[in-house]
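Q: What residues go here?
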């Protein structure tokens, strides 16, 4: 639909901008060149959107992961664990294994930047935030998987115990100020309540 509207706008602009004596063949040649440029621009935009969303990876315990940081950070979800604090509520810790591919000694999860915000949403549409929604730094080793547990302020709080699945779990990930940051997204991830982890 966007392409059609763009084509019509380009054709109208070309008609208005040309001298009236131009032949039909010249007109269509210019329109064709303009459309080629538009198609190339749209293809580049689509490529960037695919990279930004990451490729879908099916998780062994259920759900999907989209990791747009996969060129510099591998992530394996170990589990999402709920700990009861009352009859109806608790907090949720996310446990992952991460493999830093850059020469970095730490990676941060949490916080937000622009529209990239860390949060979880259950199947009833309830949104949960981290206890402290700031960058939480974790030590990593280049080229080795290291276990990371989002707790000590990085856990999701006031989570209803009826939330047995996070339909969306978004983790803002930050490695440096050189562009190595991304929003890691998990879909339909089971939450295991009060199990040893």
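A:
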């Amino acid at each position: 639909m966007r392409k059609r509207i763009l084509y019509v706008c380009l054709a109208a602009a070309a008609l208005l901008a040309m001298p009236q004596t131009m032949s039909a063949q010249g007109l269509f040649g210019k329109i064709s060149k303009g459309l080629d440029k538009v198609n190339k621009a749209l293809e580049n935009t689509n490529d960037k959107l695919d990279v930004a969303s990451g490729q879908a990876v099916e998780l062994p315990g259920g759900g999907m992961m989209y990791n747009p940081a996969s060129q510099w950070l591998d992530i394996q979800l170990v589990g999402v664990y709920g700990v009861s604090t009352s009859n109806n509520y608790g907090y949720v810790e996310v446990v992952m294994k991460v493999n830093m591919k850059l020469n970095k000694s730490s990676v941060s999860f949490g916080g937000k930047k622009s529209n990239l915000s860390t949060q979880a949403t259950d199947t009833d549409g309830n949104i949960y935030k981290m206890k402290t929604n700031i960058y939480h730094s974790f030590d990593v080793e280049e080229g080795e998987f290291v276990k990371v547990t989002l707790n000590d302020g990085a856990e999701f709080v006031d989570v209803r115990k009826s939330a047995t699945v996070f339909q969306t779990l978004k983790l803002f990930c930050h490695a440096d100020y050189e562009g190595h940051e991304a929003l890691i997204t998990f879909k339909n991830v089971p939450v295991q309540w009060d199990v040893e982890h």
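A: Context that may help when evaluating the design: Residues 24-53 form the longest helix (30 residues). The chain has a mean pLDDT of 82.
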